[in-house]
Amino acid sequence: MVKNYLKIALRNFWKTKLTSLINIGSLAIGIACCIIIILFVKNEWTFDQFHSKADRIYRVYNTTDAPGGGMQDFTYTPFNVTRLMDEDYDDLAAYSTFSSFPQQVEYQDQNFAETINMVSEGFFKMFDFPVLTGSVKSALESPEDIVITKAVAEKYFATTGAVGEQLKMTLGEEDKIFTVVAVLDELPSNSSLSFEFLISDENAKFVFPDPVINTWHMIMGANYVMLKEGVNQKEFEAKLVSLVDKVLGKEREDPYSIHLQPMLDIHLNSDFPPAYAAVSDPKYTYILSGIAALILILGCVNFMILSVGKSSARAKEIGVRKAIGASRSQLSKQLISEGVLLAVFSLGVALILARVALPMFNELANNNLKMELGLDNILMFVALAALVGLVASIYPAFIISAFQPTKVLKGGAASAGSKHYFKMALVTGQFVLSIFLVSTTVLMQKQLNFLQTKNLGFDIDQVISVPINVPSARGLRDQISKGLDKAQILKTQLASNSNILDLGVSSQNFGQGGWIQLGWTEPETENLRQFRMNAVDPGYIPSLKMELVAGRNFEVDNEADKRRSIIVNEAFVKEFGLDNPIGAKIPNPNAIDHEIIGVVKDFHFASLHNKIEPLILTQNIEIGFSSANNINMEADPSPKVLVRIAPNTFDTTLEQIKADWVKVYGDEPFDFNFIDEGMARQYEAEQNLGKIVSSATFLALLIGSMGLFALATLTMNERIKEISVRKVLGAPMNNIIMLLSKSYVLIIVIALIISVPMTIYFAESWMSEFEYRIGIGVDSFLLAGGATLFIAIVTISYQCLKVARANPAQTLSSE
Q1: How far, in Å, CA of 38 to CA of 377, rounded?
Q2: Least packed by Cβ within 10 Å: which of 280, 418, 628, 688?
Q3: Higher pLDDT, 769 or 193
């Protein structure tokens, strides 16, 4: 029986080659999209599960007052919090800090600018990162141990057998020699922690001052703990109240508390700040899954439409089979098996398409997915294809197997008119999805264009940022103050270059994380007051062409400005209610002597996801630090020299800058980046999602067009005699073409009406993440409807013309 089903199916595929190829193509595209999204979702949902003890590992976070009321979570936590937990409680199996700092690494008289991570001895007791060479059992027990990744070993030593090799770093004022004790294999793509160099946190005393290590008001890194087996998370969290009381006192001003976030919850929980962990908004997982499902549904709809559409061609076959004794269930099984077999053929094509498209998807999703055809994946993909074939063929099998042999063998209608309405409903559904995707793509692109073209309050055209290396700094204050002094040396050297239009210095850069956040709690109201800070020089504001709305800029040789002057933005003035800001102060009595000398027009130093926060610009960072008892740092505070280069001179000017760098700093590693590229990276996830939706729109339109072409072919063939009669009776060709195409125009209008609320709901949900966004206008829907109508008319025009031009004498000769 199965062999017979297979033979009939293959014969039918060959007989209807066009529709079979269209079905296989549309299903293959849909299945390929699903395969890629399955790999993506599987990777997302299995983040950190490769750690054998992941169910007992937690990230420490603290909760305190938020500005304007409510509570705020911080995943950067005090450096010593887990050590104190281990000292006070017997519930931890292991613990580790995880912090980073920029550092020059020296090997064989060459210097490289790197990011170093410091962790505790218990790091490898918790985490199971794959080891390539060496051993991590006792790694980092010595302060001179260093663990590196495969990529670092190949970069420095041209081999992965780098155990025993040595690297030199200057930490604070100390020259330290580190010995490689282990080389880790490529880190899993589904790891929320990413690093290249690991050293012991015993070295923290060389990098950070004692107050940074021991205070709970300046947070520099993340912390992880692993609870002993049988220890309940909530019960342990309840114990931590006594630790907070011990360190901060029971009579503290703010409701500071410590909590634990499960390791397996980190990646797909965007309610928490990311800290060092890779965090993904689960909404994008659902969106991508939905897009893949839509494309697959379109492929299935194509199958249904064409199967029902060509049912009249199989009517006599079904009638004969029924007449000689075939039951309806047997016919249904035959038709369903044809659908499943076609889906299996589609799976073979889909696997090829998925392998070809995966690198492009990885680039858009910033991922490293691999097409691994293990047994579990193969079974999953085959099951998917079988399910698709089953779902797509059930309804056509139900319709076709119901044909009455007495009618079809006499040349009567194969089925009732309901079949026609069902086809139209399916076609309408296709157009609804197509218009939804087109209008969504248009709106997303308009929002992204808005983000890229909005006036940000400064000019970064032709501006590069040159980071200054400060290897001997100990702590945030030292890093900024030494960096500012060091940056002035390079700035002085570059000042004589005629191709350099402006120069400025800044400790913070655009698009590279949040600027230094400072805050204090008002004793009277217990409200948390926060602002951001950037350490700059007098050239900063003019170099970025910012506008001062009141007061003046810093003066180059004014020592009072260096010691006690600050410039604030308009948001600061509004937040703190300063009616006459010039000459006023930060409203915190603990701040050292200072005054506001200028107000800069608000500019977007963070992404447009967020509203502009209060900000101070200063040459003396102690003004800001003295105003705060909470300090949060997300980005590297090493000062940068901002250089505006004259148009059409970039290559030559950059070579001159490099030469001046060597004159000033010798063989220290030189680097630079374009500020506008850093700004664009803030919207990388949205841009990539926009590209994915655009690709999905193209595929949806392609599948819809393929199905529409095949359906038009079947429909026109059914109506060719009707059209011939109309021509004999004198109907002009333009009337015939309008007659054939008007139903599709009506369908598109109906689809447009249905798709509008769907699009509005999705667009508003997506754009709600942006503090600054466009409005949803009717033009996007008109464009989507017009584009879809144009594609539909082009798709069916060939068949319309073919039928309209047919010779009535030939088509009616059989009557």
Answers
A1: 9
A2: 418
A3: 193
Give tens-digit pLDDT for 389-402.
Answer: 777 767 666 665 55
Domain coverage including residue 406: 1-47+281-415
Question: Cα angle at 724 between 720 and 725, to 5 degrees?
Answer: 120
Q: Which of 436, 438, 346, 428 is nearest to 384 (CA)?
A: 346
What would the two tokens of residue 708 be?
């529409």
Q: Is 81 exposed, middle or buried (0-12, 13-18, 19+ CB in 10 A)?
A: buried
Is residue 757's pLDDT more than 80?
yes
- Hey, which bits of 536-581 come out as E strands? 548-551, 565-569
Among candidate residues 754, 782, 714, 699, the one with its CA nearest the CA of residue 428: 754
pLDDT in tens, 434-488: 888 888 888 888 888 887 778 888 888 889 999 888 766 666 777 888 888 888 9
How far separated are the first and last CA of the chain, in Å rounded?
A: 40
Tokens representing 73 are 């979570």
| Structure token digits, residue 731 | 């109907």
Q: What is the pLDDT of residue 114?
A: 86
- For tokens 């309408």, name the residue: 428
Rg over alpha carbons for the chain, rounded to the nearest Å, is 34
Split into its structural domains, the chain has a count of 4
Three-point CA angle 696, 699, 704, nearest 5°: 125
750: Cα within 13 Å, side-chain hemisphere: 13
pLDDT of residue 719: 64
Rounded CA separation 767/762 (Å): 9
Count of C-beta atoms within a 10 Å radius of residue 286: 11
Domain boundary among 679, 700, 726: 679
Same domain (yes/no): 60, 33: no
Token code pair at residue 528: 């948390």
Q: Clarify whether residues 694 and 651 are in a common domain.
A: no
